[in-house]
Design brief:
Distance between the termini of chain B: 56 Å
CATH superfamily of the largest domain in chain A: Butyryl-CoA Dehydrogenase, subunit A, domain 3
CATH topology of chain B: Rossmann fold
Strand order of the largest sheet of chain A: 1-4-5-8
Largest sheet of chain B: 9 strands, mixed
CATH class of the largest domain in chain A: Mainly Alpha
CATH architecture of the largest domain in chain A: Up-down Bundle
Structural class of chain A: alpha+beta
Radius of gyration of chain B: 21 Å
Structural class of chain B: alpha/beta
Order of helices and strands of chain A: HHHHHEEEEEEEEHEEHHHH
Strand order of the largest sheet of chain B: 9-8-7-10-6-1-4-5-11
Oligomer: heterodimer
Number of helices of chain B: 7
Radius of gyration of chain A: 21 Å
């Protein structure tokens, strides 16, 4: 077992950190306050290969590995929850299924633009009646000659309003239950496709969370991703990868809040002492740092398993469960260390606390992760 | 055309500066960075590469650890790198350093359409002497303090940024240009660039490799060959905090006049 990063991974982490600190951190409060999608950052991320970090160069990817991708989302998450989920959703939920399940023609057609940020990607599974119970999809796809006709709507779609390429799940054979679900690559300008309501959210407010509406939406037959009926498998496999992204985001949020709290407690003076001199502060920060370090090991182990082609479903579920709950706990405790100032928007920790909550909910709630883990334990 | 960029790894003085008892910089205990002006010189080289497709070669003199800086530059897009490194070169002042680096550049080879770029000065010594001395030793025209560089048909046009204005100067290639950090914001290395940087060549040039170069004189390299003598090194006393007055109204001007009057400046 080797816990050391390669030379390239060390250089990548340094570059991600500098980019996040210099280019993303200065905008974080603004994109949250104004609920603004940070297009200017997305463009820069794309130019530097950060919207396709671990995909092969032949498709326009960065040619790095999944651990590097986890570090990327982590470093961005330290300064901006919004930007980290934009990268994670785009990469894990749209680029990954096209790369892993797409035909060579689909890869060549979609990946170069996605991996370089010329197009933003999104993933459409969730519906009003199909959340954790993803098999209850109502969106239907009917084959009609050389195209499918899709009808239905999707909700809570991360990057929904910003994307132009979507991986959409729909029932091609309702009688077969989840075995009747198929996946499609849908473009924003396909006839019958439209963006519905954008959600007003508690956290990750600069990211777009939108409804997708398909009304007799015409999708060419060649845009079927995988085979008919393979959609549920594609969705679950894709969400396993997505969990590494969200776990990395949560990891970054917790670590970023600790960074802010260390800096603040070393400056803030009460009772004639810097509050970092009080043992309660020291023990709090020591506990928080230990928790996030444990989360990092879980996240990197899941990323390493994915990189090496091993079954990483259990590890990804554990990483996401632990990192997201740790992030919520740590960001909340950091707000407490800041006292009244922590509750104001003058400091970033309240934003980090708001951003952390969603990591326990999206791409599989903490309860869904426990279901996955219990299944692996044989507890049923 | 190729661009040879001479760069230096320096202690990061933006953080805590560690000083030895004798007043010299404690380099070992400080993190190192690529000198800012030098990084802008690399970026200038890469922009010429973007435009003309030329090769960019980076050169440094330093310990073996300086290879990490060269890898950073290769990740940004430079094509190859040279590390001039030997105990015999240790302790060199600007006179000795420029002689050794000039010998290294000469070994790499300077063609008629080549350009050599250096940073204006390093943040550790702040002498701004090495670039100009390399030009003299290679008998090349030099243009210092470049804030803008254009190249056309073997002629470089440089806007020199001076304290009291600017000056536009032209020179034929080959020539040497020293760059200031205001010339450009250096690019980030891309993920692909970082993944490629360890497969690009880094050549180490030792004393053995360079000793037959006409520019190398055995008794004018290294510490013993350096004519510079440091009489005293000390940390200057901290200046008092500045005061910022804001507003373009009469009251602010009156306040400013009163403050300057109180200090007998007016």
């Amino acid at each position: 077992m080797d816990f050391r990063l390669t030379k390239e991974q060390q250089m990548l982490r340094q570059m991600f950190r500098e980019f996040a600190q210099n280019e993303i951190k200065p905008l974080a409060a603004e994109v949250d306050e104004e609920e603004r999608f940070p297009w200017e950052t997305v463009k820069k991320l794309g130019e530097l290969g950060m919207l396709g970090a671990y995909f092969p160069k032949e498709y326009g990817g960065g040619g790095a590995d999944v651990i590097a991708y986890a570090m990327l989302v982590e470093e961005i998450g330290k300064v901006c929850g919004t930007t980290s989920i934009i990268v994670s959703s785009h990469t894990s939920l749209c680029c990954a299924p096209i790369y892993e399940f797409g035909t060579e023609e689909q890869r060549r057609r979609y990946l170069p633009d996605l991996l370089t940020g010329r197009r933003v990607g999104a993933f459409g599974l969730t519906e009003p009646s199909a959340g954790t119970d993803a098999s209850s999809l109502e969106t239907a796809a009917v084959l009609d000659g050389d195209h499918y006709i899709l009808n239905g709507s999707k909700i809570f779609i991360t990057n929904g309003g910003a994307a132009s390429t979507y991986v959409i799940f729909a029932m091609t054979d309702k009688s077969r239950g989840h075995r009747g679900i198929s996946a499609f690559i849908v473009e924003r300008d396909f006839p019958g496709f439209s963006i519905g309501r954008e959600e007003k959210k508690m956290g990750i407010r600069g990211s777009s969370t939108a409804e997708l509406v398909m009304t007799d939406c015409i999708v060419p037959k060649e845009n079927l991703l995988g085979r008919e009926g393979q959609g549920f498998k594609i969705a679950l496999h894709t969400l396993d990868g997505g969990r590494i992204g969200v776990a990395s985001q949560a990891l970054g949020l917790g670590e970023g809040a600790i960074d802010e709290a260390i800096a603040y407690t070393k400056e803030r003076v009460q009772f004639g002492k810097r509050i970092s001199q009080f043992q309660w502060t020291q023990f709090q920060l020591a506990d928080m740092a230990t928790k996030m370090q444990a989360a990092q090991y879980l996240v990197y182990a899941a990323a390493d398993a994915k990189q090496n082609g091993l079954d990483y479903s259990l590890q990804a579920a554990m990483a996401k469960l632990f990192a997201s709950e740790a992030a919520s706990d740590v960001t909340r405790r950091c707000v407490q260390l800041f006292g009244g100032y922590g509750f104001t928007r003058e400091y970033p920790v309240e934003r980090m606390m708001r951003d952390a909550k969603i990591t326990e909910i999206y791409e599989g709630t903490s309860e869904a992760q426990r279901m996955v883990i219990a299944k692996y334990l044989g507890v049923n | 055309m190729k661009i040879i960029v001479c760069i230096k790894q320096v202690p990061d003085t933006s953080g805590k500066v560690a000083v030895n008892e004798d007043g010299t910089l404690n380099r070992a205990s400080m993190p190192v960075i690529t000198n800012h002006d030098d990084k802008s010189a690399v970026e200038a080289g890469l922009r010429l590469k973007d435009k003309y497709g030329c090769r960019v070669v980076v050169v440094t003199m330093g310990p073996a650890a300086a290879e990490s800086m060269l890898r950073d530059m290769l990740a940004m897009g430079a094509d190859e790198a040279y590390l001039i490194s030997d105990r015999a070169f240790g302790g060199s002042d600007t006179f000795a350093t420029s002689q050794i680096v000039a010998a290294g550049v000469s070994r790499i080879g300077v063609d008629p359409d080549d350009i050599i770029l250096c940073g204006r000065q390093a943040i550790d010594g702040d002498t701004a002497q090495v670039g100009p001395q390399i030009a003299e030793k290679l008998d090349l025209p030099q243009i210092t303090y470049a804030g803008d560089i254009a190249v056309e048909d073997g002629v470089v046009t440089v806007r020199r940024m001076l304290e009291d204005g600017y000056m536009t100067v032209k020179a034929h290639t080959p020539c040497l240009i020293t760059c200031i950090k205001e010339l450009n914001p250096p690019r980030y290395a891309s993920i692909a660039g970082i993944m490629e940087c360890y497969s690009k060549p880094v050549t180490v040039l030792t004393y053995e490799d360079l000793k037959d170069e006409p520019l190398i004189e055995p008794d004018t390299i290294g510490l013993k060959g350096s004519p510079t003598n440091i009489a005293k090194s000390f940390t200057p006393p901290l200046k008092g905090e500045g005061v910022m007055l804001e507003g373009a109204d009469k009251n602010t001007v009156a306040d400013l006049v009163a403050r300057l009057g109180a200090k007998h400046i007016l």
